[in-house]
Amino acid sequence: MDFSNTLGAEYRVVKDTEHDGQPARVVSGARTYATNVEDLWDALTNVERIPRWFLPITGHLKMGGRYQLEGNAGGEITRCDPPEALDVTWEYAENVSWVTVRLEPDGGGTRLTLEHIMLKDEASEAHWKQFGPGATGVGWDLGFFGMGLHLDSGEAVDQAESHAWMATEAGKSFMRECAKAWGEAHVDSGEAPEVAQAMAKKTAKAYCGEQ
């Protein structure tokens, strides 16, 4: 089974861009879910549903409000146009990046496109040269996976079971395949194959707890 395409993002892209006039990179993934736009928007923005597929969250989930994901990033909601567009800052370990989410009808379902934008500053570059896009991308693949489980079943994803699954061979295979897929997207962006593959392998080992 191709875990990366079946359970994570269905489409991945890595590209250069600018953010507020500064050089930046974009790591972007997309997946179509078998639900309508309104339901997917609710799953993304409802404080009661977010923990069912992602992480517990606190804060004021409205335009200009701030949020905090338990044990992860926090930030400010800078755009909120239901049910189509959501932008937030992503503040973690004293680094700031930006996440945008767009929803649009796709056949009988809804396509979710997520972009994570990072400046090419000193701190980000050091991390990028080790792990490349997969360090961010595999994390979002896990989010895409959790969303799919929640929407398919209507139930909450058990966080303890989810963490236990990540330690199994099936979970590790999923993360390895996702890292490999991000390496391929990195090559498509112009990176040398041997460099992208080395970064992808480091990313897979990190997620699998092997380094």
Structure characterization notes:
The protein has 211 residues and is of the alpha+beta class. The chain has a single domain, classed as Alpha-D-Glucose-1,6-Bisphosphate, Chain A, domain 4 (2-Layer Sandwich). 43% of the residues lie in helices and 32% in strands. It contains 8 helices and 8 strands. The protein has helices at residues 3-7, 37-45, 50-53, 122-131, 134-153, 159-166, 169-188, 193-207, and strands spanning 11-19, 22-33, 57-59, 66-69, 74-81, 85-92, 95-106, 109-119. It has an 8-stranded antiparallel sheet, covered by helices on one side. Residues 1-5 have low confidence and may be disordered.
Q: Over the alpha carbons, how many angstroms does the gyration radius reach?
A: 16 Å
Shape field? globular
Number of helices: 8
Structural class: alpha+beta
CATH architecture: 2-Layer Sandwich
CATH topology, what is it called?
Answer: Alpha-D-Glucose-1,6-Bisphosphate, Chain A, domain 4
Percent of residues in helices comes to 40-55%
Cα(first) to Cα(last) distance is 26 Å
Report the β-strand fraction as a percent range.
25-35%
* Sequence of secondary-structure elements: HEEHHEEEEEEHHHHH
**The CATH class:** Alpha Beta
Placed side by side, the strands forming the largest sheet appear as 1-2-8-7-6-5-4-3
- Mean pLDDT equals 94
Tell me the total number of β-strands: 8
CATH superfamily: START domain
